[in-house]
Amino acid sequence: MPKPDVDPTVSLDLRVDRSSPVPLYFQLSQQLEAAIEHGSLTPGSLLGNEIELAARLGLSRPTVRQAIQSLVDKGLLVRRRGVGTQVVHSQVKRPLELSSLYDDLEAAGQRPATKVLVNTVVPASAEVAAALAVAEGSDVHRIERLRLAHGEPMAYLINFLPPGLLDLDTNQLEATGLYRLMRSAGITLHSARQSIGARGATAAEAERLAEAEGAPLLTMQRTTFDDTGRAVEFGDHTYRPTRYSFEFQLLVRP
Amino acid sequence: MPKPDVDPTVSLDLRVDRSSPVPLYFQLSQQLEAAIEHGSLTPGSLLGNEIELAARLGLSRPTVRQAIQSLVDKGLLVRRRGVGTQVVHSQVKRPLELSSLYDDLEAAGQRPATKVLVNTVVPASAEVAAALAVAEGSDVHRIERLRLAHGEPMAYLINFLPPGLLDLDTNQLEATGLYRLMRSAGITLHSARQSIGARGATAAEAERLAEAEGAPLLTMQRTTFDDTGRAVEFGDHTYRPTRYSFEFQLLVRP
DNA sequence: GTAGTCAGATTGTCCGGACATTTGCATTGA
DNA sequence: TCAATGCAAATGTCCGGACAATCTGACTAC
Predict the structure, then answer these.
(1) What is the least distance, in Å, from the CA of A64 to any CA of chain B?
(2) Whether A60 contacts chain B with CB within 8 A
(3) Which residues of A227-252 are buried (b: 16+ CB within 10 A; e: fewer)?
(4) CB B245 to CB A199 under 8 A?
């Protein structure tokens, strides 16, 4: 009986284009990722050793390793010294991204809508000043938005932004999400500190979200940083838990 | 006037021990991380080019790059082509880990306690079977624990585990957290899928957590996978939001 | 039969070099 | 004065090789 586990990459049509400006390791990692996504590389299968794979593609081993490493970082592959590289065997799909409520809803086919209720400049409170690392009392933008899906209120979003970063056009804010606006303004989002909790709705919150007073609400506070580490946004959001929950995929750092 | 921004790593006492079994790139990244943590490398400062740093330490450039890259992945450094490598300029500390409530509480100095209320084997419900990828009705472990801090109930934790993975000793469960038990049993935790929401407490939940019926509760459902992608745990947890909230640090994938 | 040993396979670490690409700044030109 | 050009500096990509560490499985010795 022949060994059933043959290197599955030999039957894969892997090719790299050396004239392309796309880095070789990236071309390879994309093709491998597509093969995993498509099912050509089944979970649990061994990838075949790096040396041979490099030889077959006409690449050096470091380049192949770089491609494989990027997929390991994404959680799609697992390497074991002395054994080989294996496709992870799970329902795992996307790692975890800086979630944008607008994008989340749109991806779920919910056709989100936004109503801008407040768009003004206010002096920073102590809390906001600390979060954005600006002087207390200095000017910051304050926007309040009601996010709806299918005409039903889903979340009430209060955000503060440092001045001069973005011009906040109300029409644009109603047409898309804040993160998308910031990205298109050339801001590179880097990380965010989030705190998720729950509490009963105050009378004002209840009315905004069409809930009863004291009804459970999901709350999130978030400070977002760009790639230089400066705070670019502070948000204080409340969600209707019957309509929304936070879905994460966490990866353990090795 | 001399240029004020001198390479700050020259004044750092960086050394590597080639006789140590610890990889050189790891020794270097640890020292750099410690310097950032300690404040010797101030936010915004440039690190000085890789070539010179490699020469000064007697290392090759790939090794230095590997050390720097690991800190970039952690979000502590930013590289800019044509510019240099810079210390990120923020309050960012730890990226984000697969959070263990027990460890979180212990780190916060809260002296957690655990009361195991149920520790038995039950047939898997449809939901549990789907989460753990076992046959519906097959045997799974079921444990229910009340987590307390300073004698006050904080969370009620229901967990399901596939059979044969771990022997669940009630005494051990009361002395430490589930994740720590799994790790010490040789299980390599890899990723987890989480869903965080909120709802009003049922009468039974209210009594367990010493809250009123209908009081807001924070809920988390989680499936944890090991490095081969197999589900090793499914949890259904409820938290008292006045006592606990989820704190995250998210990194954007470049 | 069982435990210990050894060899092969595979990934992990490290080197030294080469060229490409991007950025910032100084110089040059209109 | 201001814009375009060119140069230097830094990271990004890629190569080919070497040896170490670890896992698996087969073989050997008891």
Answers:
(1) 15
(2) no
(3) bbbbbbbbbbbbbbbebbbbebbbbb
(4) no
pLDDT in tens, chain B (254 residues): 333 345 666 667 788 898 889 999 999 999 999 998 888 888 888 888 899 999 999 999 999 999 999 999 888 898 988 889 988 876 555 545 556 667 766 766 677 889 999 999 999 999 999 999 899 999 999 999 999 888 889 999 999 999 888 777 898 889 888 888 888 787 888 888 888 999 999 999 999 999 999 999 999 999 988 877 788 999 999 999 998 888 877 776 65
Could you tell me how many residues make up chain B? 254
* A141 SS3 class: strand
What whole-number distance in Å separates Cα of residue B3 and Cα of residue A137?
35
Residues in chain A: 254
Burial profile B131-146: b = 16 or more Cβ within 10 angstroms, e = fewer:
bbbbeeeeebbbbbbb
DSSP state of B12: S
Token pair of B135 as six digits:
């046959």
Report DSSP state, residue A197.
E
B7's tokens = 């390479």
Contact between the CB of A85 and strand C at under 7 Å: yes
User: pTM to 2 decimals?
Assistant: 0.78
CA of A83 to C1' of C4 (A): 22
Residue B60 token pair: 């090759």
